[in-house]
Amino acid sequence: MSAPQPPVLRWYFDFISPFAYLHWHKLRPLARERAIELVPVAFGAVLAAHGQKGPAEIRGKREFTYQHVLWLARREGVPLRFPPAHPFNPLTALRLCIVAGSTPEAVDAIFDWIWRQGQTGDSVEALSPVIQALGADAAAIGSDATKAALRDNTESALVAGVFGVPTLSIDKQLFWGNDAHDFALDALQHPELFDDPEMQRLQRLPVGIQRRA
């Protein structure tokens, strides 16, 4: 009898998200032990596909989110400095990640530049030191192939059911958000967790209130 196959892990993220930065610090040790496919996606396109606004687009929620992120970073001992403006256009950073192979080292370098050093990450010029450090081909960042790869990543995320970033996928089970990391680790260690009758019932729970058209 063959041994069971290990679960397939994928991490969907966007450099625009400070919660993805915080989650990466939790996920990095796991990435040293297990194979995790790192999938940069365009968060804006994910939001648009679901008809949602990002936290930074809602007054009040924006300010609260930024202060909450800073509080979390300080509590977790993660160095954090917001970039000069937020939200910013993350497409260049995402495409750079793809050109650099979407490796842990590339993710480290780009997150470090934007969220640890607080630098701008919205253009090839702004990311030039990171491009050089990674030995990436700057010309390839704007190529049609790289743009298509990012679109494919984003589409695959939507097909998988992703609705926000960061999201860790364990096989087909999605764990959304920095604060779901312990939940994901528990599920990874105890795959039978979702066989629990109440967990099963919650997957079929009907909507109690219908929105008016």
Mean pLDDT: 95
Q: Output the helix-strand order.
A: EHEHHHHHHHEEHH
Beginning-to-end CA distance, first to last residue: 55 Å
Q: C-alpha Rg, in Å?
A: 18 Å
Going by helix content, strand content and strand pairing, the class is alpha+beta
Secondary-structure topology with pairs:
Blueprint: E1 9-13, H1 18-33, E2 36-40, H2 43-50, H3 61-76, H4 91-99, H5 104-116, H6 128-134, H7 138-141, H8 144-160, E3 167-170, E4 173-176, H9 181-189, H10 197-203
Helix pairs in contact: 1-5, 2-8, 4-8
Q: How is this structure best described in words?
A:
There is one protein chain. The protein has 213 residues and is α+β, with helices and mostly antiparallel strands. The protein is built from ten helices and four strands; from the N terminus they run βαβαααααααββαα. It has helices at residues 18-33, 43-50, 61-76, 91-99, 104-116, 128-134, 138-141, 144-160, 181-189, 197-203; strands at 9-13, 36-40, 167-170, 173-176. It has a four-stranded mixed beta sheet with strand order 2-1-3-4, sandwiched between helices. Strand 1 (9-13), helix 1 (18-33) and strand 2 (36-40) form a beta-alpha-beta unit. Helix 2 packs across helix 8 and helix 4 (91-99) packs across helix 8 (144-160). The mean pLDDT is 95.
